[in-house]
Amino acid sequence: MDQLLEFLTGVYHLSWWGYVAVTFVLTHITIASVTIYLHRHQAHRAIELHPKVSHFFRFWLWLTTGIVTKEWVAIHRKHHAKVETVNDPHSPQVLGFWKVFLSGSELYRKEALNTTTLENYGENTPVDWIERNLYSRHSYLGIGIMLVIDFALFGPIGITMWAVQMAWIPVTAAGIINGVGHYLGYRNSETKDTSRNVLPWGFFIGGEELHNNHHRFWNSAKLSIRRYEFDVGWLYIRILEIFALARVKYLHGRKIVDWVRVKKLRYLYFPIIVKYQFGVGGS
Ligand SMILES: [Zn+2]
Ligand SMILES: [Zn+2]
After folding, report:
1. Which ligand is located closest to the Cα atom of residue 42?
2. How far apart (Å, rounded) are the C-alpha atoms in residues 172 and 165?
3. What's the CA-to-centroid distance between 43 and ligand 2, angstroms?
4. Which of 69, 209, 235, 255 is deepest in the core (most CB within 10 A)?
5. Domain membership of residue 32 as a residue range
6. Cβ–Cβ < 8 Å for 67, 57
7. What is the pTM for the complete model shown?
8. Which helix (H) or strand (E) holds 48?
9. 163-206, pLDDT tens digit by residue?
């Protein structure tokens, strides 16, 4: 009986702010996974990620959102390609602000069923065994497992924490970025679309708040432009770079040279060049 009661009340008993802090950390990892893995790495190829880091983010998204990489990437690329037209999956200029703000995830789910979108815009996304047999095939299993984990660790309050986790992306990404990010805020660049920077400090939504900057330099690894702007996603990418777990490919429209690869190629080809020159000279 005691064991059952122990199970029902969870392993950890925290103060109220402890639960808030844990929930915030969990949702922050999810938002980091969206901005670093789905958006900057998969959709725009602005950065390379070490396979282990890339897979961690993919696993975490399966566990906390049920998002399928190919669907998210395809819908997002289509947004850039067809921005503010009737074919834009979530334009507040076409569909109305409240529709996108309140029903952003509904619009997402509807577009995810469009196989033409997935075929046309979902290229170069994972198709390995685990993607086909687990992440894509059982996309909702992960969030079910997360519910069990939250309940086992924190008891009944774990269900509330799980609900916040589930609401985080629909509210912040689908609602605030897709809705407010094309409606309210300031602009650094006169892009053809109506994108706006929701806030100059991108922390709670991983730097995605700087949406006008993103539409100006869509394949840039860094979303802040001005000195006073802050992009926490960029900070995490720089930290990953220190440990050779990420590499920046594009920065504000500039291609970044991979000197490590250039050096490797030089050492690889140098003996061949010498041999070739010697051969030519000796003949
Ligand atoms: Zn946009
Ligand atoms: Zn984008």
Report:
1. 2
2. 11
3. 7
4. 209
5. 2-282
6. no
7. 0.90
8. strand 47-49
9. 999 999 988 888 899 999 999 999 999 999 999 999 999 999 99
